[in-house]
Structures
1.
Amino acid sequence: MERRAGEMENATLIEMNSVVNSHGEDRETPHPIHQENKNSVYGEPRIDFVLSYVDDDDGGKKAEQRKLFEDNLRKKYNLQLEHEYKSDCKTHFLKIHAPWEVLANYADKLKIKVPFMKSETKQGKGKECLDCLKRHLYPPSEIIKPERYYTAPFDNSKSDSFLIEDKETFFHPSTRNRIVYYILTRCPYYQGDQVNKNKTGIKRLLSNGTYTSAYPLHDCLCLKKAEQVLCESDRDLLYKHWARFRCFYKKQPLDLIRKYYGEKIGIYFAWLGFYTEMLFFAAVVGVICFAYGLHTYDDNITSKEVCDPDIGGKIVMCPLCDKMCSFWKLNLTCLSSRTIHLFDNAGTVFFAVFMGIWVTLFLEFWKRRQARLKYEWDLVDFNEEEQLLQIRPEFELKCTEKRKNPITEEEEPYLPIKEKCPRLFVSGATVLFWTCLVVACIIGVIAYRLAVYATFAGRIKNMIQLLESVVSPQQTTAVTASLINFAIILILNFLYGHVAIWITDMEIPKTHSEYENSLTTKLFMFQFVNYYSSCFYVAFFKGKFVGYPGEYTYMFGGHLRNEECAPEGCLIELTTQLGIIMSGKQLVANIQEIVLPLLKNWWTNRKRRGHSGSSQWEQDHALKSLSQFGLFDEYLEMVIQFGFITLFVASFPLAPLLALFNNILEVRLDAWKFTTQLQRPVAIRARNIGAWNEILNVVAVLSVITNAFIMAFTSEMIPRLVYLYAYHPGEEATMAGYISNSLSVYEISDLRPNNLPHFDANPTLFNTNITKCRYRDYRYPPGHPQEYKHTMQFWHILAARLAFIIIMEHIVFVVKFLVAYLIPDVPSDVRDRIRFEQYLVQNRLVNEELKMIKSS
């Protein structure tokens, strides 16, 4: 069986005796940075974890807690500790080393998989040739050099069965820091055998200020070429071949990322890289569709009629609001009418269908990629490990009652249903309240649009015609409302983030996976409403319940008239809304993720300027720590972006291109941030992207529906096709006359007094007496037996809209299910390897057991 793994070659610095397993795990002799302290009381052990604290001002209470905590670490858990002062004599460091006995015991307890036999499977020649052709797209061979080993859960009683060459380097650093952190979260700081739930774990000591930080050490990093110190390490390799932007076109060294940061961070970058690769195909098709609109820009008959002074210049439109809005000529929308053709054309229909298929392919191929990663990174049986062994310390502390686990038959804490239900009720009510608060804010923005539009219209009415065509009241209101809505989104996101964490803590989830999935669901549900509600309003509600002149519908007690769409439809406004929110979100996210940590670290380094020769633990102490929710923001940012490019992509074919550019930058910025600006996080195992998988599936299904409705009801494509093939005048099917056909006629004398402009109650416009005005609808003209009732063309268009939705959804869903059926979630070669390795592990361990029995 073949697996990829990173291997470091640095014979000049130290002799490397690596043992690499089939899943990409390197075990090396310690890097030089871990051997800095020549006077260590334990010789030169690897520093597995560092705790920092400052001198106490509370009468020694914190010092006493530290003493009890450290005594228990030494006596109960057999960890080796060493104190050291920072060069400024204010900060103290506690360096922690886990000896072999501790690592072996907890590796056995946590069932950590390690190599026990080398695989003889060799790489095929075809694969080697393919790698040769793609050598420019891959990092150097020393970063992704494949190694082949079979692995099995570590058994301390059968340690001779495993490939142990050096006990100090057998467990690689990410595994060591994970074991030590597991101990730190469960170590008490009280005396005696009586359990005190409120005095257990490093998390409580960090929250009450007893310790200021806890982190595993980074490897060294040589940022200056002039440095003479040879310190090449995994971190240095990641910086040179991953974090630099000049590597943007190369594949990420995922095995090395997983080895250094752990599976959870590794799988995030694997998903982000895969998502970015798939965006390339969507971006290409989107650019082609936009190019089609650009190519046919000058041939658009509809916009030509709008801009023609003899056609659009002679069509007088009814006022768009009461009293403050005047009558206006249709050719004032010339610019927006020409612009909308770039996004609303025949190519957009094809792109909407394509994106429905693309999102299915993306999810199916990611399942296969994820299955391969689970095998290569020893995560196939991870669920059992999580459920049986990884109970959250907070759950153990807060749950007083115990019951027998049906699988392990051991006593474990549990939360009774009578306590769990009230907690879930309060949590659900809180989420509902904040969701309603978002809806209330959106209604407030709608009220702003309705109230301010009239003000803008009143101010602009006296401007020259050219200025009106560029800065129309509708465009001005749409842009300012989008900016206000984006500001509200940021404020609510900040507040709700803290609320979501609080209510999730109140639920007391049992395992880390349950905690993360619960928090993920809450955050996404809120942000889904927060980010997308305004787009849903513009796409599906604005302009749909307006009424008609003389019978307008009103909101807020009949004081504000519902918004109308421009004669060319609301699609251009949806494009504007989508562009502002999507671009603004990415800009703010990059500032939060990059600029703020950079400024914080710069300020910290500036304060300690003058203290030369600082050690690695001092350098890492100055970095910003990654919170336990650090990846939530990363995933949330990308999934919200995924929603933008799938739910509303029919209105903006260039959205995948913008997302592609952002993600290419995002991968390298995140890599740079993790490598240089953040403390090394504790390695955490994860077999997949968690609840985000289900969220992506829900968004994918919903995107098919939303894009079908956008094309049917928001776009003008269906009315144009109905006119082209059923209502066009003459023998030849052309779009000539469509504008006049799509606008109904109303007798101005029938308008109610409150619908007329207050400054021109008996209107005379452009030195011409006006008796009729036009509005956007399909109704019979005055004087007709069914005046102001819907025409047959309206019902034909409605039927065509519904038929389009049914046809598009069925096409996409049939293709979706067909693709899902034809593409198995687990590649056949991976499935065979998993079965073969399970057989081999069982057979090997049974043989070892028999040998031990015979020898005894």
Note: The longest strand covers residues 91-97.
2.
Amino acid sequence: MFKLTRRSFIKTTAATALVGHIPSLQAQNLSTGETGAMVKANEFIRLNWLEGKTPQVLTGATVGVPWPRGKISKSQQFQLINQDGKDLPTQSWPLAYWPDGTLKWTAHAVAAGVSLGSELQVKPVAKTAPPSENIVSVKQSKDGYLIDTGVIVCDVAAHGAQFIRSVQRDGKDIMRNGHLVVITDDQPDGESGTTRQQNYISNISQVSLEQHGPVRAVLKVEGMHKDAKRAWLPFVVRLYFYAGADTIRVMHSFVYDGDEQRDFLRGIGLRFDVAMRDALHDRHVRFAGENAGLWAEGVRNMTGLRRDPGPAVRNAQLAGLACPPLSQFPDVIQRLIHLVPAWGDYTLSQQSADGFKIRKRTKSGYGWVEAAWGHRSPGTGYIGSISGGVAFGLRDFWQRHPTQLDIRQAHTDTAQVTVWMWSPDAPAMDLRFYHDGMGMETHDQEREGLEITYEDYEKGFGSPMGVARSSEITLWICAATPSREKLVQFADAIQTPSQLVAKPSHFLATGVFGGLWSLPDRSHPVKAALEDQLDFRFNFYKEQVEQRHWYGFWDYGDIRHTYDLDRHEWRYDVGGFAWDNSELSPDLWLWYSFLRTGRADIFRFAEAMVRHTSEVDTHHLGQFAGLGSRHNVQHWGCSAKQLRISAAVYRRFYYYLTADERIGDIMHSLIDADKKLESTDPARKLKPREDISNIKAHAGFGTDWGSLAGNWLTEWERSGDVRYRDKILTGMRDIAGMPHGFFNGNSFAYDADTSHLINVFGNRASASHLNAVFGAVEIFAELVTLTDEPRFVQAWLQYCELFNAGKQEQINALGMPHGAGNALRNGHSRLTAYVAWKNKNPALAQRAWREFFGNRGVPGPLLKTTRVQGVNSLNPFDEVPWISTNDTAQWGLAAIQNLALIGEYIPSMADLKKMDATDND
């Protein structure tokens, strides 16, 4: 027992009354707002900018909005309105439906170049008039598509290498020949001899028009990277166009399907050409730096010369404006200008999170000159002239290092730009497994490895086959060189895209995501302390990302699993203690934290995690397609390929809030993941307690079937396809029909052909501490409200009540203890809270709070960090010795859900003192 925990907590808590009483969850689940009134079809839903300020540059935006059950017809139309009450050009579409067919989530797109303000409103309306201005049009031909935003016209090819044939503005070609490039090495370095490189370019297999306006158009380009002999590295590139926009948003995704022993990626990039029409001194190069900095030069610089061209020339070039005609230059400049070097090639290379370098040269074959250095570049550049050019940027540029921006041949009629998502200046990407197996050949030996390093190793299972990564690029098609201030605004917009969101009170009122949260409430001293703890834990991890440099192409978005106090280091190199890979649901902790607070920093943290865990931690093709990899030194290294990691339950928040098509694709790809249970049995290394020779596959109820239920629920509500509802209902009824329901063994036999769960444990009762902590609590809360299966509800409530119950209570109900002990007792307190709320049982509510506070519930004096620096650390950082990601995720979910479910029964200070005294007896 941690005897200092509650006593110290009591000493350090202070009452802070900031908000009024929050209605009970029972009221919230009736789809009531803060005032208790039903959300009506003709009411406005307020939308705010996530970062709290009106964007300086708006290239168009899309937002997901939830609606209460049974209130909004699937045929309902919507209108976006700005803060001045003016109707905006609007495009709306459904994202999800309630079981009765009414709308659950809708998406709404707003055009660029319209007056928005700090707040928008979305309103259900009887009829929406098609916009007469600010529209995007799409024309299709056998060769491709022509997209006109009203500002730019983009010609997209249906086949070949260049998917962007050209982009025009004001009738002039500005950009041409957009395609993908890949460079590979046949070895990671030159130690074994000469390294041979190979170049591949994109080859289109299919182009699909996913949306065709009037406000937003989306093209999906699919293909492979190809040379004369080989096609590999499948890619998907989505091109986004908004009415009134001069930008193209590019979402690039690729899947690794090579041989990690010989296919070492050296560069992955998007390449295109830019027309250069003007004199060399009227051509401009820009790279954004940090803190609103900008590196800005001319292709042929007119400053610093021995003979001064005059302030009119110098000032114009520096501002990116047209210089006076050459005939107005001083005679000596006119006569000798051809001897001023023209610099054709430029590179900004970000090789680490802490340093970038800019270099330039006159042309290929001549030496590079190092031009500038900096810390963290936002990854935005520009090449063009007074007649137009292209600004380009890669989101998370320094966070996803090594990255690079190249400009080549700017001194010719056509400049070439490559936005490198993996920099060719960096060492080749080495995806090989990090050890040789250390003699582990059998499952018995592998279990011994698990015993010492917590690594679930199996030969051949640490392959990167099928892992993926997506990158977001923005292209600005400019009529002229933008001002320095505008380029800085572009850089900010690329790194922090404008995102609209509804208010937390609206999310809560609609009952989406199970409604297992409440708005922050500091009116009670203990509640205030819990809110402090929630803030502390998130802020700590946010700072750890920076202090520990959890950055890099494959790493950014993940966090570490367990801390090593002796080394003052997270256990980055110790088997299963290294990268977290969604273990015990930190994703859910973050998303529920955002829903209840609306904090932008939590959203952005969770967004990076979604991008990472949905792609890097998940296999998208090959033997393990549809499965994720358990925590490991390498994200794909663990042999536990499991549904609990790839699960849609972790991704659907982001999808519904943003309507992101890539995440939608990933979730859809999981609908048949149950078929992988047979070929990759999660129980294959366990010694069976019964004859399982005729069992095709096992499924744990939470780690496997709960994940499947989340996948199917998401597909059902997105598509309305009742086949996936029926799969869920089949499993719900099978579990309800077991002798002990959810306690009928740690896993069931599973038949993927029929979706049936089969009892293989007879009348024995048992439980696993992991079954409820990978989204099962949250998904089952939704299933209880969305389906009518009272026996399933009864079985689930039994599990919730008995998991943390005393042994005698377990024996009385099950005939035997379930055997899970007190594992994750704090996190499981939310199960007790759920049944207490559901059955209106104050005694169980009080028991739930005892469980929550009884195991390091609120470590008061430890709401502090210790600064480690000097010889004990490479860099200064803050340390919390007791913290772990498992504990944080489960503590956070329990705190959030207990406050919502049984907040009215929260112990007083006096109660906590009594609990503390009892512990000391």
Note: The longest strand covers residues 197-212.
3.
Amino acid sequence: MARPQSHPTPVLLDFGEFELDEANACLLRDGQAVALAPTPFLLLCVLARQTRTLVSKDALLDAVWGHRFVSDSVLKTAISDLRKVLGDDPRHPRFIETVSRRGYRFIAASPLAASVPPASTAVPPTDTPRLPSFIGRIAEVARLQRAWERAGGGQRAVVWLAGEPGIGKTTLIEHFLAGLGGIACARGHCMEHFGTGEPYLPVLEALADLCRSDPTLPALLREVAPTWLLQLPWLSSTQERDALRRELAGVGPERMLREFGELLDRYTALRPLLLVTEDLHWSDRATVQLINYMARRRGPARLMWLSSFRLAEVVALDHPLSSLRHELRLQRLCEEVVLDPFSETEVADYVALRSASLACDEAFVRALHERTDGVPLFVSSIITEVMDAKEDETTIEARLADLAVPDNLAAIIDHYIAKLAPEQRTLLCAAAVCGSDFRTETVSLALERSLSSVIDACEELMREQVWLTQSRAPDVDEAVELPYSFRHALFRQVLYDRTPRSLRIDLHGQVGTALERERSVGVPVAASELAMHFDRARLPMIALRYYAEAAEAALLHFSPDLCIGLTERALVLLMQAPEGTERDTLEMTLATLQGVSAFHMFGVGSKAKGAFERAYTLLTDVPEHPMRGRLLHGFGYLLGLRGDYSQALEVAERAEALSLNANDQSLMLAACIVQGEVHHLQGRTKMTRSWLERALAIAEALDIGTNEIFATDPQAMLHGMLAIELVRSGLIEQGRIHMQRAQTRAHTLRQPMTGLVATWQEVLIEVRLGNPVRVAALADNMQKLVDEYSLALGRTACRWWRGWADARNGAPREGYRHIREAYEEHTGLGMRSGASEVLGYAAEALLLAGDYDAAQVQLQEAFRIGEELGERVYLPQLLLLEAALARAQGWSDASNSAVRRAIEEARAQEASWLELLALVELCECHDATPEDHQALVMLIDQLPETHGTEQVKRARSLLEAVKRA
């Protein structure tokens, strides 16, 4: 904690029969010196210097003892000694008052510094702004100061400032900031006026605030936090933003968390930063998640994140902040400062700012405390009402006695509402409909009043210091009119609630229309805000259009959870819209967006599938819907991942038919990709190649890259898919050429999702070629991509392939564990595509570990899943595993039978490479016939691109041995 500042002017004070003279180190009683030890004397001076102000125990220990090797008991002893000398009764104090568990207060007359005139005659310089008086909260300020000092030393601090409305949270923050001087500070506010606000709104506001004061921050954003830079469009050009969107396509919301952590780590390496987010009870989930991430982030950071919230609302509404604050407190990752109402003594201190004699009137103070519950806002409101400098204090007491002061703030605000002139009330009602902050231009348009009259009315209301204040201080030479805000959020809420329902509905419509007009001339207005206004104005069709726009923007901002919230509200509102084509169009848009966002959030489960099915059903009525490509590709892809292959093919056929009718090649491309993927998994090698070659020709002609339909570059993806089929056909070199093209394009585009898919496809090739060292390296590369860019799609696959490589490289038990854990997580999300192959990896690892019974269980499960799904792509390898397992247990006949079934399946799939592998296995078993040997010779001759592989080298050795025999 910071030590109190030194005071060059010593205390000189008369109180009661005593005179304290710090300069001469003496205490006099009725002119006679009083014996007082140095420590109690210094303690008295510290208390007297801050008369009528609570001085916390920590502050006293710091000031008198330096807080070294002492405890509270030493302070109590010194206070007791001091009271004995002063003859002060602690139960009825004249000079030193105890504030239970907090500290002490000197309650005698105010001290007079020897060289400073009394406060009643001192005149502040006219060019020095006068700060509002600050009452109490000494201990709370001290805790904030200690947290800031820890942050300055590299120990990140997350501090909650909690309390009921009107308790003085903002005032305390302002006082704390004023005492820190010119530090790096970024402030943001959560907004209440629409329930599903922009993700990270207070943090984005804080970053924008910091960018205005620190010109180095935008460059740092470009370097380490591009997803955040994308949310601050005024910091980059249109070309830069388009490039960023392409680069960040497919990136998950976790990327924003990591980027923000890295951004603040680098920023605070140069200077400490105080990040303030107010009214966190109105925050979006993304902001709460970000605070959680920053609190748990390891490593030093000179950061203090101070957030205020209303405790009762957080608990009552089951806000996600409620559980987070408990978790972080249990793990000592945060500190919570809870503000209590003023005590009677603090209420008296506040009254003393207006009238010293009234502050000494115990009856008056007690009545005021009882009627306001000590809530600072209540106290301020009542004192402003009853105090009038032109009236004597007796009249003031009478007015307080006669005033029907209510028990809650809503009633107090009602009193102020009643005093408003009709025009003022109409203006404030419109402003309340706008939200906690509002622009005069919006109110002017909504009420059809001149802008100058609205500004004049707002200025008058601001001067009264009851209703309005300016949202922020103006920048130098700023020409635009700054927004206003309600001085207290509760004032705005009560006024909004008291506005007649019919008028409130009309005002929402008028404000929504005004915001539309402003938006049309370039004023940034969020679609979610417009949706809220037209929703509450009972104009469902207009609201639905903006809900759809807001939901699409949420996906662009990596916030699928917000997209789901918006679409859920919109789909409920849809029931109020009249039937017809426009409603069907909007419903299809909303359902498609909900399907995409649910897929990102929850995987391929029923929520995503149900949303896509709802949109798919509507496609018959709206066949030319602009989102049909996104719907058909997304739905087909989801069905493929679920293992619903027949349904996926139906969707692909629908896309092909629509493409032919509309001559839409992007739809045909989506159809070809889904067809190719499904036929691949069903083991139809030549048919798969046909679809993929057709798709590649379309993709190369379109050259569309990543967009709202394709999260990965189609050309790179198709080169990789085709490479796999070519390898299965034994065209190894051609396959490697296509795979190299996929990797080269992914590297050129520098798009993370495309890079992930290309690496995924190369792993599948190396698994089929049996190269565990290469698979391990690729799996590690995938893991880096997944971690760096938060790509949920590859989170499980990279682990089961690492497990496959570990099993083959001498760690089969560890490999099995990785494979099975990844498989359980993958299928737990509803994704069953490729399940038979992954279970084959698990069976192979257990076989290598010598656990034949467990391997048999995994293998049978793989056969069952493959049969259930109609998934045959890995069936030849599964049959070879069955043969190896039988051979390991001495069952040669069963082994040979399984190998021959593998050969038949490979031939049925026209997968010549797999047939070659199976024939080599058969020949190695020494039960092969001359016909088998001849078939192997002929196959090798037909597949010249396989000649350099280890498998063909083994085959040639076997055939040479047969000849010699």
Note: The chain has 46 helices and 16 strands.
4.
Amino acid sequence: MERLLPLTKEIDSMQNELDLGSGELKKLMETIKKAYVLVLKLKDDDVWFFEKSKYAREIEDINKDMTKFCDITLQVLQYRNQLKLLNLGGNVVDMVYGLGKKIDGLSVPVPVFKDLCSVPKLNKAPVGFAWPLMELKKRLLDDAVVNLVVSAPPGCGKTTLATQLCHDADVKGHFKHILFNVVSSTPNFKVIVQNLLQHNGYYPPHTFDNDSQATVGLWTLLEKLREAGPILLVLDDVWRGAELLLQKFRINLPDYKILVTSRFDFPSFGYKYHLEPLGDGDARALLIQWASRPNNTSDKEYELLLQKIVKRCNGFPIVIEVVGVSLNGQTLTTWKGQVESWSQGETVLDIPSQPTVLECLQPSFNALVPNLKECFLDMGSFLEDQKIRASVIIDIWMELYGKSSSILCKKYLEDLASQNLLKLVPLGNETEDGFYNEFLVTQHDILRELAIRQSELEAILERKRLNLEIREDTFPDWCLKGPVVNASLLSISTDDLFSSNWVEIDCPSVEVLVLHLSSSDYALPSFIAGMRKLKVLTITNHGFYPARLSNFSCLSLLPNLKRIRLEKVSVTLLDMPQLKLRSLKKLSLVMCSFGDVFYDCEDIDVSKSLPSLQEIDIDYCYDLDELPYWVCEVVSLKTLSITNCNKLTVLSEAIGNLSKLEVLRVSSCINLSELPETTDKLSNLRFLDISHCLGLRKLPLKIGKLQKLKRISMRKCWRCELPDSVRDLEDLEVKCEEETRSMLWERLMPKMRNLIVHEEETEHNLNLLQMF
């Protein structure tokens, strides 16, 4: 009764709203209320026994009344409502749209705005879309594909590609009706349907009363058009938040397909095609199409200018067009001056055009929700064309925005990627436990400039994010006055000629410091010692060889420093325990070079100097042949990841001291031959990753003692010997490829009833080449 009464009220209300009759369910609702009151009485323990038998008879009568109503009256009402809806559909066609309206005695549709939903004309032959056109046409003409989404950043040519597709001879020959409608950021379903009706020659009403009427109108129109042949509906420039709108167009009719173009991904709607920026060859051809060659220019000089301009435009058709138009008919001096201005830091965002590049990109930023706007702006702190590990950005966001979950920060990355404001590139199989080194983040230079432009709307010293670029030893003028910087995120980049002669800058509010360096020797600025709020320090060397770092003592005793990441640096002088960073939670060392001093810290009580350290991540450190002794003294450690370290042959027996360790990852260490027997002392270990340890021959004999171990990842470990004690591991999940499964685990499956083996194909991922 508790479920039926509100449902009945809702049905009665809907009937009234759709003019299908009201009050017809009143008798049923009264019966339900009567039953509800009766049941409440029977629940009362004070009801006498003889009264209960009387109430039972009343319940039988109520059941009969309800059954009679549902079997007879409700069926008749339902049939009546169906007829009314069919009549409404007929009225929509015959009365509202003007079908059957007589002109000169003939029953024909009335032509109104016949070009309202026509495919746009192509003023110039598109350049660079031959391959995307072929791929998209293949999908569109595939009977198994009903809905397609073409997504890309703004200015990549989505509308141009869709328009070219609609003009293709094969597409026009297949679809008898091609309807093209621009949706934009403020869509109105009723208006779009009205446009479709008018385009096809039918009088629409002044306005539909509701979306239900518009749906009936759309369905009726499509049914009518389908008599002549297949239909293609193009919804151009669909914005985020239009998922419900798209579903209204998703009508199950044969020979009816929808093509959507959008800056955003709609993964649940249909097949997704991501349009990439133009390659250099196509970009060059497009630039030549828009800009005539300046007079008195040698072939060599002209080619050099073209190369520089193409590189600067980075494959964005809108940028190439704007730059090309601005240079068309101009002198050689103007061409050279434009290229020179870019080297001085000017952007292409404000080149005069209608519209400007900035006006094209700005709506994508404006459409972001507040937290994603902040995350997008942070991306301006990294360099052009930089390939960023996802873990770097996630570390920053976790501390900068107080997020305790790395999964939430990963979702922010995915949200920005779904809106084509950055690119998230997987490097291998999906990993577990918040390990995000297997993802690269890249961003188009134009989008990076958009992020920087938004941050520059405030005065330099008042900005929340500040980028400081130092060329040779030349600092911006504002740095020479001993300024107080109020930024919370400070990014400093230096070139290979920088001599580490720093000026003093007061940065009391900085929480995240991002250092980009290119020189072989680099001294950290002493003013870091004054960053009492500093939480994250990331140092990335963009030079070819590891850079030698000095003045590391400036980090000593920083009270809030929680995360340090060093990439491609030589840390011979680094002795982490001596810094006494009592708040440090995570240390990441990537492509670093180590020296002997790294191991010499036996006189330090590591548990007191690094009492909060919970995670150590060592990746692609080629000269690491053994684990530093002090690492095994960090009793607070919960995650230890050593990956892609080819010289690593053994782990210290002292690893057994890490009683709080939950995750041990030693993947892709191809010369690691065994895990120490003391591994069985890791009583809190729940995840072990030994994937691609090709030289691993055995696991600890007493691994079965690790009762909290629930998951093992061991792709390409079929040579490894499993000890008998592995059978004591209850509820174990194993991830491996077919060979490891058949040679190691298949024989154990009958004996380990709760064993789950996930067989995964080994990925040969060419994305790995993008790392270097």
Note: DSSP finds 21 helices and 26 strands in the chain.
